[in-house]
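Onboarding guide, step 5: your first structure request.
Type a short instruction followed by the sequence, for example:

Predict the 3D structure of this protein.
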Amino acid sequence: MREELSHKSNQLSSFEGVGGGFLVILGGGESGVGTALLGKAKGYEVFVSDKGKIKESYKNVLIHNEIEWEEGQHTESKILNADVVMKSPGIPGTVSLIDTIRKHNIPIVSEIEFASKFTAATIVGITGSNGKTTTATLTHHLLKDELNVGLAGNIGESFANQVLEKNFKNYVLEISSFQLDDIVDFKPRIAVITNITPDHLDRYNYQFENYIRAKFKIAKNQTADDYLIYDADDEVIVNHLKANPVQSTLLPFSLKKTIENGAYFKNNELIITIDNNKIIMPTKNLALEGKHNIKNAMAATTVAHLLKIRKQTIRESLENFQGVEHRLEQVLKINKVQYINDSKATNVNATYYALESMDAPTVWIVGGVDKGNDYRELFPFVNEKVKAIICLGVDNQKLMDTFGNMVDVIVETQYMSEAVKIAYKVAEAGDNVLLSPACASFDLFENYEDRGRQFKDAVRNL
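The system replies with structure tokens like these:
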């Protein structure tokens, strides 16, 4: 593997910030079109190929910029003329076309890799199975008042397009394992790993170790001058670091133990120490609730402290941060029942955090595309906090079998509007209704955002 990477790295040196050559982009979505625009601006001949349909808005951008494209197919003869291929993170590395490209020794990179060649900005890269969106958004929120900073990666406008049009001096990038799969030289100045729990194992031969290694690619090119911020309470991360030391300067954070260089939580305060420079942040006015959000705040505050953001700015920003859509988002209170949208919880660990944070009897809406879920870690919360379960999916049998004997009320439906109406009938004053699916959304919805918006619309229509 190391030989393969170094070989690819040599081939990639031709675009160390210098354009030219034939750039093929597989996937005409946000990252693909952003890369196409940046590639063209840097002197590449660009061809965008998407096996599915390209959205009209993206097609119009490609046409307006005179970039050649195709949809509904991959013309292999043309693709194999590429000097470099940018692969959309949604395309698995196991498909036959990717194998053929590799056999032709054509380097394959991610958008993150490609775009990073054309910026000298300080990059904060944030990954993890859960919490990365909140942590990235919160980090950007802490930095934006004092630094020229963009937010990109797996969130919002593409990194490539921001490098082209905005040219920020700093970037906070939310980075998925799929985006990390195709990096070669990319390295963030500051890397954050929020946690690692089993997820997307269908993309990693159902081997958790492969997924862990993918996450740790965020630090693989770092040196002692760079920083890795990570959850010291996460045994998966700690054990992997012991067996596979990295070059980075380590800054752990913990809810459970005192940390000399890094961050910890004690007596409702965050204590962050970097090179004997300590700051203390009270958490009683923290806008985000739940233990997991204290961890997200520790990670983001450590980044802000590293980048010399003033303590007053950090404190004010922590207190006025409103969170992200579809992540424990309080929608409405109707008849003293709180409706909560946690549609972004697409795995069991994310739902664990959601149920842990519930402080009232809860009607739980769960279900979707099961990714080999093991629901056992949720049992204590279901027994303690959940009064009714509404299974929302095409196939709910596993959920019905798992939780059928644990609650008095368990029903199934394939319609969000019906799920919300059932919840309305079952919930009583003082209860919560929580959409936290623990599953992917693709059986009934376009994506988790569509699922969350349909939930909010249904609640507003009650």
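Each response can be followed by summary notes, for example: The chain has three domains: 19-109, 119-320, 329-460.
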